[in-house]
């Protein structure tokens, strides 16, 4: 069994160009999904899995991220004065979630480079990486299962999702071998965003990773790959071939995932989450049925 895993790294230095002009002055991670910013869902998932030490990799003009998880005493006092206990509870929750830390990425050299910026904070421990574009439904276990397998096998673990073969050019794609567990595979190779005709499978790497600390040394020696960026996929490809670091395993996720990475999927995510809310779901479903019924 590996050591307990308590640290999470959330890369959040991207420019969010798909959502311009909304993200001209506001980080894309702060775009609301119903009534919480996307990044809060991710931090809540980490905390639910016991990862209470959270490092956010930020960039320029990302001050709103730190502000969101900080106290706003004047707002809290105003809500207290009004007797608005429910909104005060929700405001306080975001301030009390985890031990939050921040470091700037500096040069925008890719996901691998962003993860490498966590080296001094993480040290010699295994840790989780959670991408803010992917929101995993709280009713479906993914990260907890990944941590369990990582500790059992003392290895690195990535999340995999079966996708339409026509969409392989949007993801890192894995070559895998079966294990004794239906949801666990051993990864033998990875390629970043292959064309459908070149893809080794339709198992896409999505935004959850549990990594051994050896990934930092590999990343330091990883040359820029596709797009001139340091690709985390390239580093994991090296680790997959190295039994000394336990190789790399994958968890095939079959639960609910909400992709907030582009405009259409962001809208779908809001609708899907709102439909399942106790406080909003009935009204949203009623309106949605009426709206769809009136479409030509």
From TrEMBL:
Substrates-to-products reaction catalysed: alpha-D-glucose 1-phosphate + UTP + H(+) = UDP-alpha-D-glucose + diphosphate
Annotated keywords: Nucleotidyltransferase, Transferase
UniProt cross-references to InterPro entries, sorted A to Z: GalU_uridylyltTrfase_bac/arc, NTP_transferase_dom, Nucleotide-diphossugar_trans
EC number: 2.7.7.9
Keyword Transferase: yes
GO molecular function ontology, one term from the record: UTP:glucose-1-phosphate uridylyltransferase activity
Nucleotidyl transferase domain mapped to chain residues: 7-273
GO biological process: UDP-alpha-D-glucose metabolic process
One Pfam family it belongs to: NTP_transferase
Similarity annotation: Belongs to the UDPGP type 2 family.
Record NCBIfam families: galU
Record PANTHER family: UTP--GLUCOSE-1-PHOSPHATE URIDYLYLTRANSFERASE
Protein name: UTP--glucose-1-phosphate uridylyltransferase
Naturally occurring in which organism (per UniProt): Diaminobutyricimonas aerilata
